[in-house]
């Protein structure tokens, strides 16, 4: 393969924060017309490196050189890097929900004169931009009315409008479903022929394997290696090895399931959408869970898995229509979250920051927050017990925090997730519903979370895992239900579970084949 | 430097923010004490200070809880005035005995609070709107019932606003009950410190060095004893005000509720992340309802104390109280977005405002300039807070900013640098 010219070279970048070296002697070489992936665990320094590149951390706050298109660059702010065609798209999109697609695309870059916007020109240009990213929406649509996948495309259109030559994408597909992800990745691939190179940060290694031309792996703020995908036959395991520094014997801990009798049954569970009452988000779903069993729920985004789980958990989502729940042979009613908790249910939300934790709280208060009655007498919280329990979970789940008095916001994503798990384990549940339990956390922490889930099953609890990562479900679960458009379409035993079978049931309404 | 900082921090246990507040308060008091040639800490002035600001501080207690839960209450001044006139009217026209009138006043607080709580918690109208409406509604109701006139209250009633600890026991030249109160508080401080140390040791946590504990208790005890003697040597017939006792009792009660009870935890949970709280089994609507209701009850109490002090209820009672209470809460370190704040902090914040006001008045500074200075102090206090939080410490502003920058990779000293350990499979 002919060596393309070097577009960007970052040489021995070192960036220090008070008390920590975030980057140490990091180098990165990106060639023209390539997709360059940056991999590393959370905290490895990926985002920091990209912020150095894009001028978020201005010249002078780091040491090392940035050579871009053959010239040494000293970016003072983001505008300076954007002027050179380096545009970064953050994981949390920077769009204004109340403004239209057009208004967002030209935000901060409005065509016009003397502060008066030339809307005619903007409207003319936006058509071409949307065409280029394959977004077929009325440009006057408000951002809040289109899905995340399309919002991502608006961000890219915005970048193109800035004459982007090097596009930096931070976890671009983290919130996208399969088909939106594919579209996005195709788009980035197509950009190569239009002279736009990309740097992509992602935890989704299978996607990186598919689209990246080369991969730079960071670990603990250092460059570990750069892999040439085509030349070296890189696969996921190879990347993981670089990220964690050794082979992972297996991505899932060993386990011999001991499955007991059915103890939790749901019959004909039907729920309406909270706003549009004619829309059903759960259509007569029935399923069962055995003691000691890990049950997976597979489905595309929007299939109604989270909605099913949340509506079961004290009618926390939508409008309940009909359905029965039996636990240990008795019919139970859970009309509020506290009733659900009393009946031994626990629900770990997919959205840790918005629904799982109060980020202002410390570790110990978070740990006990879902069942304060357990450590209080006449409503007075026993802080000695609180500390004791929190410390026990800190040890047994290996939550990395100096003390349980530290704020949860100081923890990494994986450790925050462990706090959420501790919080729900503290309620002594019989059935845990874990919604995307490993989203956004790094490989090592994932392995630990799997271990925790398996231990819960070993204790005879039932565990439901909702996940969008099929390998995770297949590796972890004893049985997998597939959900499509609010209905359960199949019930697949571990032995028969492979991605193709699952995907077929996840994308069609056909009942058990 | 950092050594001094950390040991001074451990000295007062609370977070650095609160410590800074207490330090500023001490500095302000010292400044005025020197500037006014000892007038500030003079017995008469201290007594006046307490009876003049106790009702604002009582409001601040309720307000901080409202603000922690993520709301605001603009109606407290009007609710206070409304309660005052109804109670005064009941005693003047209905010949209601004054103790029963106080009960009636609290009941009005409950009803008004239920009204506002209903709209906030169960209908979902923002508290800003509900209480803005309440501000007009109850101000108007006060003037409607009282014919925009002043109505005197009987002498017995004035004890809650203008009463003092009575003279009891042998003639020592001091007010004995005030000294006794001081003694009880010193004992309580010592006992609390011992208990706190014991708990920490029980938990296997590192207790601060004994010397720090001793020093902390010594400083607090010295302040209490100094204050007790000052209050006990006031003009004949005066001592520690009854309203001050009500205030101290409420501070202790509400500090306990917010810090140690399930109910208190739920308030912080609702304000910190309401959705997460609901999914943890917290009855969010009920908490919102109770917090709003509680505020109105305290406003009713404050209104009665004020009426008692003035010996009459008038149409302009409680004007702008809400602003003083809200300022106290924010100077005391609460966050506009909710989830953050303490009763103690708000009291300290309220005292900063009170001492400032009082000291400037003693020096004959006009109310126009006092207003301007108070405004700037509020701005400065919160600005320092914001600036402090930006120095790397996790804070609400930081969390909100992170959302826009989107950096899960921001390195944190807390995160362990070594890769996650993988147990042998």
Relevant CATH superfamily of the largest domain in chain A:
P-loop containing nucleotide triphosphate hydrolases
CATH-assigned fold name of the largest domain in chain A: Rossmann fold
Helical content of chain B stands at over 70%
What structural category arises from helix and sheet content of chain A?
Answer: alpha/beta
The number of helical elements of chain A comes to 18
Spatial strand arrangement across the major sheet of chain B: 1-2
In total, the number of strands of chain B is 2
The poorly predicted ranges of chain A are none
What oligomeric state do the depicted chains represent?
A: heterodimer
Q: How far is the N terminus from the C terminus of chain B?
A: 48 Å
Biggest pleated-sheet summary of chain A: 6 strands, mixed
**SS strand fraction of chain A:** 25-35%
Mean pLDDT of chain A: 88
Mean pLDDT of chain B: 86
Number of helical stretches of at least 4 residues of chain B: 17
